[in-house]
Fold this sequence. Notes:
Arc Repressor Mutant, subunit A, alpha+beta, two-stranded antiparallel sheet, 7 strands, 3-stranded antiparallel sheet, Enolase-like, domain 1, 3 domains
Amino acid sequence: xxxxxxxxxxxxxxxxxxxxxxxxxxxxxxxxxxxxxxxxxxxxxxxxxxxxxxxxxxxxxxxxxxxxxxxxxxxxxxxxxxxxxxxxxxxxxxxxxxxxxxxxxxxxxxxxxxxxxxxxxxxxxxxxxxxxxxxxxxxxxxxxxxxxxxxxxxxxxxxxxxxxxxxxxxxxxxxxxxxxxxxxxxxxxxxxxxxxxxxxxxxxxxxxxxxxxxxxxxxxxxxxxxxxxxxxxxxxxxxxxxxxxxxxxxxxxxxx
Length: 256
């Protein structure tokens, strides 16, 4: 189930339990150490005793929100506890004016370049959060072809420029088996757009594989070039690393 479809958890009926759960989680995030009842009691606005806090923490443990590593230790949040904190207790912070300017400037630099977005967005997230920022690109097979062109470089290398239906531009250098003339590359790009424009890359790949099995592909030079270049590009994109991380050194600034 996606985050969008996930049903929000039911609120705890006891506001005191919610407050103690929140304090345990925040304290554990800051220290990385199990949190004891005495620590929470000192933070309590109600002047709760360690015994009262301990009883509530025991209830939260039974409900699956907290866990106790061993008998004499304090409590630590469980996955369920973290999820409740994020979905229910965590209040979104307001962006400051400087952060808003930084976001606007970063998004302006991206333009329509997909590769730029993969570099800039995780860096922006890391800077704003002081955590690790990451982007997982959507599956390339789902991108829909609007335009594609091939540019001759050198040493049997060709630059492929791909534009999807939403206007996002990506480019990749591919190695080819023969030294194509610029005109051959231009005609191959036009052929792919005319024949496969509006189809996803997954659909295009399936059709190119089918064309490769036909005798016509061996004798029609235009078709041969288009099939060869198209499959080379799709093979390269299929094996591209789609996870981009920034700010991994921020991990060292936090406990555990």
